[in-house]
Amino acid sequence: MHRALTFVAVVGMAAGIASAQSGVLMVPESSNDRVMLFDAFDGSLITDNFIDLVPQGAGTPINAVQVGQEIWVSDQIADSIFRYSLDGSTHLGTITGGMDNIRGFEVVGNTAYVTNSGTGNGAPGDGIVTIDVSSATINGFFASGDTGAGDPFDVLSYSGNLLINDISGEDIDVFSTGGAFQSVFVESDGVSGIDFPEQMAETSSGTILAAGFSSPAGIYEYDGSGTLLNYYDVGTGIRGVHELGNGNIMFTDGAGVHVLDPNTGAITDSIDGVSARFIEAYIPAPGGAALLGLAGVAAFRRRR
Prior knowledge:
- The protein has helices at 2-19, 286-303, and strands spanning 24-29, 34-39, 45-52, 61-67, 70-75, 80-85, 91-95, 105-108, 111-116, 127-132, 137-142, 155-158, 161-165, 172-175, 181-186, 195-202, 208-214, 218-222, 228-232, 241-243, 249-253, 256-260, 267-272, 280-282.
- 44% of the residues are buried.
- The protein is globular.
- By secondary structure, the chain is mainly beta.
């Protein structure tokens, strides 16, 4: 009787996930080269194998982003962006050449802004490679950093501009979508402020979360002018960060995916034993949402 009631509860939960189509998050992990899915409200794991990246030769997948009716996954070692159908079942093609040591990226309109650091494969070096989304082809480049010598790790669309971080200067800068430097958003010395900033994310209240990888590592929260509001010491090697629907903060590191309660400081694990990367919202097609619900039920049955 207890198992039956529990199963019914799981079915109800799965149906809730299916109906809340915007309530899903994608996180690549580079231990097994897969894309995982999590509930966007509480950070619980939906599936640890939404997309298998191995057949495409993935090396270090960093950022999975929904691009229209596709999912694009950047890979730092493969120097490529893998394109998949929205349900994750079909590899549609790979964007290669002209990129090296890529990390996070952002899509604004018909342009993907991809962080680039190397010069292999004909790549231009440190800065932002732009890709025309419609044709999935590279169409431009601009240097980043306040001096034009920044080493970017992520791009975030914010207030009509782009926030682009710099792991060499430790800053976060504001650029126009046309690639023109506007201002320094966060100026850090890497000692008393953020060091090696990785993913950035906007919260529901308009503040900016940034993952600090190196000491003083942790999660940094800034207001719209770049002033530090909160710092959460959650350990070292922080990579991805995202606000959840319940107000908690999901973050990733080389040990897994975790959830911070900013009010109590308590940290819980959503999944451990994987080298997790960036966190992005995912809106599945209606049929795909229903399948995710069934996947949750199947996972429950396997765990019995």
